[in-house]
Amino acid sequence: MSIYRKVMGEDFLRLHPMLQKRYELQFFHANGIMQKIQSGPRFLFPLILIGVRRKLLFPEYGQNIPFEITNTARIGPNGDAQVHWERIFYFAKKKRYFNALMSLDAKRLIIKDYLGEPSLVYSDLVLEATPDGHLRIESKNQRLVLGRVEIPLPTFLQGLASVTEKYIDDKGVFQIDVIVKNPLVGTIFAYEGEFIANDIS
Q1: How far is residue 37 CA from its own chain's centroid?
Q2: CATH number for the domain including 82?
Q3: How many domains does the chain have?
Q4: How confident is the model at residue 201 (pLDDT cuts 50, 70, 90)?
Q5: How many angstroms separate the Cα of 180 from the Cα of each of 9, 39, 137, 162, 185?
Q6: Whose CA is closest to 145, among 49, 43, 40, 54?
Q7: Residue 162: which of 132, 136, 130, 184 has the closest Cα?
């Protein structure tokens, strides 16, 4: 049983069947197009450059950007189940990443999300099925990760993500809509688009 099914419980069965398959797989790979990618304001550029080095954020933006996603389940050094997320955006002259490592906090029933490689930010993730069978993911409390030290971030410094993923039967595609916002700055990062899974039916 995947960490996502464990954290969602019976709610997992309310997801579209293709989303259930996707989030139960030990390995998932897909390609697609992001119709729109939005970056943050220019004054955040120094911070975004740090994100580039950590495979977390990037300054590029645009439309119709090729996209690739790979999810790989694995066992961590402490024996905990993990899922590595590699998201690649293929701009004309650059290949950019938005990577993460997720695991389950069984006591609090949340997904632990370490963003970047090496990790720079930690977020609690809450998952739920919508009435339409879509998956909604919201990030909550965040911490700055400095090696083995994790510092809680006050609300005004957090970049909280809201994600909606759905499956469109008529087109045979997954659709994704991601937006990361800060209460003071507004949108830091956002993308929306479609992708087609390989070897899933």
Answers
A1: 14
A2: 2.40.128
A3: 1
A4: low
A5: 26, 10, 12, 6, 11
A6: 54
A7: 136
Domain around 28 = 3-197
Eight-state DSSP code of residue 107? T
Eight-class DSSP state of 166: E
d(Cα 182, Cα 198) in Å, to the nearest integer? 34
CA of residue 46 relative to chain centroid, distance:
22
| pTM score | 0.95
Rounded CA-CA distance 71/135 in Å is 16
pLDDT tens-place string over residues 82-123: 999 999 999 998 999 999 999 999 899 999 999 999 999 999
The 8-class DSSP code of residue 198 comes to S
The 10s digit of each residue's pLDDT in 136-155 is 999 999 999 999 999 999 99
What are the Cα distances from residue 104, in Å, to 19, 76, 77, 130?
A: 19, 11, 14, 21
Locus of tokens 């990577």? 99
DSSP collapsed to 3 states, 34-94: EEEEEECCHHHHHHHHHHHHCCCCCCCCEEEEEEEEEEEEEECCCCCEEEEEEEEEECCCC
Token couple for 100 = 């993460």
